[in-house]
Amino acid sequence: MMDSKPDVLMDHLSHLPALRLNLHELARDQRTAQGQLALRDLTRLFSVLVAGHAAVQTGQVAWSVRGYAHTPLGGSMQPRIELKVSSDLPMLCQRCLQPALLQVQDQVMFRLVEQEPALTQQELEAEDEALFLPEPVDIQAIVEDQMLLALPLVPMHEVCPQPIVVTGLEAQPMDSPARVSPFAPLASLKKDK
């Protein structure tokens, strides 16, 4: 399944039950793996999407993993990977409450480690994240984790397709004498004492 060429490894393997990669070998051999995963197969990600949207049934998450070795000054060789993920995800706009197709993409660098590092100040300030996983790893789980981390905190259209209608409130100028303070009922309670 793995090609020995240093620049290309595989493409579009979402039909396999689990895509397992040895990330340490990928880094050591400076290879790249890439593919696409169907949104409907990523159950945790699927649960936060607009279920009836066509993009949920036909959508894909594109991913690529590039392995390389890094040797810091005065240090030993460290295997690393760069993970890129991207997809157009149908999410519920929190402004107009209509489906919004949002482009979500992320890129992260991982330093592969043999054991879980202690959370020292140096580790917290590191420019890359330590990744401790048994080999081989299920790349689908890693891709899904990264997509979940990349989701917008508040999904919204850049410009909502329909004007937002607020019911129960009438628009009045701020300096209008007819405007009633929302604290007026509290003021009447204070006067009663």
In short:
By secondary structure, the chain is α+β, with helices and mostly antiparallel strands.
Structural class: alpha+beta
- As laid out across the biggest beta sheet, the strand order is 2-3-4-5-6
The gross shape turns out to be elongated
Q: Tell me the fraction of residues in β-strands, as a range.
A: 25-35%
Largest sheet: 5 strands, mixed
- In the predicted model, the low-confidence regions spanning at least 5 consecutive residues are 1-17
Average pLDDT figure = 77
Instruction: Work out the helicity level.
Output: 10-25%
**What is the ordering of alpha helices and beta strands?**
EHEHHEEEHEEHH
Number of domains: 1
Distance between the termini: 82 Å
Total number of beta strands: 7
Radius of gyration: 25 Å
Number of helices in the DSSP assignment:
6
Give an overview of the whole structure.
This protein is of the alpha+beta class. It is built from six helices and seven strands; from the N terminus they run E-H-E-H-H-E-E-E-H-E-E-H-H. The protein has helices at 23-28, 43-46, 54-58, 121-124, 139-150, 184-191; strands spanning 20-21, 32-38, 60-70, 78-92, 99-112, 129-131, 137-138. The protein has a five-stranded mixed β-sheet.
Q: What's the structural blueprint in terms of helices and strands?
A:
Elements: E1 20-21, H1 23-28, E2 32-38, H2 43-46, H3 54-58, E3 60-70, E4 78-92, E5 99-112, H4 121-124, E6 129-131, E7 137-138, H5 139-150, H6 184-191
Parallel strand pairs: 5-6
Antiparallel strand pairs: 1-7, 2-3, 3-4, 4-5
